[in-house]
Specification:
With 363 residues, the protein is mainly alpha-helical. 75% of the residues lie in helices and 1% in strands. The protein has a single domain (87-357), classed as ABC transporter involved in vitamin B12 uptake, BtuC. The protein has 16 helices and two strands. It starts with a helix and ends in a 6-residue tail after the last helix.
């Protein structure tokens, strides 16, 4: 190999004409501990403000002071039994969806990758619905079967979309997006088929999964979802350096020591598990994983050592705020939170698609 050929990868990284998404790998040296701590602390403070506001406001007015000080007041009952578990569940689900979006976008080098868009959430919802119906027919409880069914279906959907998007051994971003759209349509049709043959008891639950909601969660559901968010987020943070290097391309990342296929399998399994848990308690909530990581990249940069934990916090705040809007905009009635995120995400998706349409969609 010539000297020029041997130095080509080095030039491709540092050249001004290099892929703009290669910056996470180059910028690793510029992320200081102080910047990391300050950024996450500011975002955590913002999340705390949003969380307190969501607990204080709703379709029924309550006094936080009275709820805290008077154990026998109706305000305490509403706060402890309804508001707090709902807000905590919204935060956990939002953290999952945003972190999954950030990881998938890096993993497949496609800025439009997101659990809902790629059909993963739809697969998880289908698995949860089938598990719920099957458990009821068999006479057993669905507490354990629903998240298991959602995880298995989400994992199968993830790997199916990924395999379809491989063209001559290379991941094709446009094919990935098209496969996700096709799988979304397929899962939607399958869910409608199930909805047409089950009895009326299941119809409302199926609609719940289609539209997304945090209605009447239990603290047990909150705990399971929070464990999935924290555990999955920890795995993604542990592999943040590899996700940065993967932005350079599979070959370059492999040369730099990343086991690309092992990394993809690991992240696909973890993200499918996270989405399976989220879908089993909240239904399909789309676009959180698209909006939050993109906004954060534009504000704090693309280094995944900061982007992944920031996505966990930002996704939690965004989803809690969306749920607050869903509960109050037409109070005392309420909208599905999935409708609010879709109304925000649809125009944002079009904006990203048009912006990237003039360039390659691959990372």
């Amino acid at each position: 190999m010539s000297a020029a050929g041997a130095s080509a990868p080095h030039r491709s990284i540092e050249s001004p004409q290099a892929d703009r998404f290669a910056t996470p790998a180059i910028a690793q040296a510029y992320l200081t501990r102080t910047r990391l701590i300050v950024t996450l602390a500011v975002m955590a403070a913002g999340l705390a403000v949003v969380t307190i506001g969501a607990a204080a406001f709703g379709s029924v007015h309550i006094s936080l002071m009275k709820a805290v000080c008077d154990a026998a007041s109706p305000d305490r009952a509403i706060l402890a039994s309804v508001r707090i578990p709902r807000v905590l569940l919204g935060a956990a689900v939002g953290a999952i969806l945003a972190a999954v979006g950030a990881a998938l976008q890096a993993l497949v080098r496609n800025p439009l990758a997101e659990g809902g868009i790629l059909g993963i959430s739809g697969g998880g919802a289908m698995g949860a619905i089938v598990a719920m119906v099957a458990a009821a027919k068999l006479g057993g409880g669905s507490e354990a079967l629903v998240p298991i069914g959602a995880f298995v279906a989400a994992l199968l959907s993830t790997f199916a979309v990924y395999r379809i998007a491989l063209v001559r051994g290379q991941l094709e971003p446009f094919t990935l997006l098209l496969a996700g759209v096709i799988f979304n349509a397929f899962w939607g049709a399958a869910i409608m088929l199930v909805n047409s043959v089950v009895n009326f008891f299941f119809v409302r639950t199926i609609i719940f999964w289609l539209m997304g909601s945090f209605e009447a969660p239990t603290y047990r559901e909150v705990a399971i979802t929070a464990i999935a968010a924290i555990g999955g987020g920890a795995v993604m943070i542990a592999y943040a350096r590899d996700l940065n290097l993967l932005s350079l391309g599979d070959e370059e990342a492999g040369v730099l020591g990343v086991e690309v296929e092992r990394l993809r399998r690991m992240i696909f399994i973890v993200t499918s598990l996270m989405i399976g848990v989220a879908v089993s308690v909240s239904g399909i909530i789309t676009f959180v994983g698209l909006i939050v990581p993109h906004v954060l990249r534009m504000t704090i940069g693309a280094d995944h050592r900061l982007l992944v934990p920031a996505s966990l916090i930002g996704g939690a705040a965004f989803t809690v705020a969306a749920d607050l809007l869903a509960r109050t905009i037409i109070a005392p009635a309420e909208l599905p939170v999935g409708a609010i995120t879709a109304l925000c995400g649809g125009p944002f998706f079009i904006y990203i698609l048009r912006r990237e349409g003039r360039r390659s969609l691959g990372f």
